[in-house]
Amino acid sequence: MKKFSFFILVLGLVACSDEVVELSESSPRVIAVEAKAPFEEKQTEQKDIREKVWEQLSKTDQDRINGTWSDGAIMKRVLNEGMGIVKDSSYFGREIYIIDFPIKSTTSLNNMLIFADLHNQKIIGYGYLD
């Protein structure tokens, strides 16, 4: 019964790992498994979204931003009427990306908010500034 339990444990660990493990009768009973952190992939995805949105901005808008695409922050929110200027009203009530870029202006406390489609990362609008 102990061998069967050990086999199930090892099988479970191997199935969850990217690492190839060869077993033999002389294999030790403890196996170290290296797993990738789940947030690494998410961070890479977010960087791509910020860069894609940055590349769609006009040169004037890029010049207003304090820094580059990597200085933007990403949020997922449901888009509601009154949040900004939106090219297509069919996005209201749907989840979108909001990319928040800091701006250079010292007379305004606001940032530039850009709305992007979740699937194709195309700019669909701009957020109102307070």
Strand content: 15-25%
- Rounded to the nearest angstrom, the radius of gyration is 23 Å
Order of helices and strands: HHHEEEEE
Strand order of the largest sheet: 1-3-4-5-2
Cα(first) to Cα(last) distance is: 67 Å
List low-confidence stretches: 4-11, 19-23, 27-41
Number of helices: 3
Mean model confidence by pLDDT: 76
Our count of domains comes out at: 2
Helix percent reads: 25-40%
Main sheet overview: 5 strands, antiparallel
**Global shape:** globular
Structural class: alpha+beta
Number of β-strand runs: 5
Explained architecture:
The chain has helices at residues 2-15, 38-56, 59-64, and strands spanning 73-78, 84-86, 95-101, 112-116, 123-127. It has 3 helices and 5 strands. The chain has a 5-stranded antiparallel beta sheet, covered by helices on one side. The model is unreliable at 4-11, 19-23 and 27-41 (pLDDT under 50).
Question: How would you summarize this macromolecular structure in one to three sentences?
Answer:
With 130 residues, the chain is α+β, with helices and mostly antiparallel strands. 30% of the residues lie in helices and 20% in strands. Strands 1-3-4-5-2 form a five-stranded antiparallel beta sheet, covered by helices on one side.
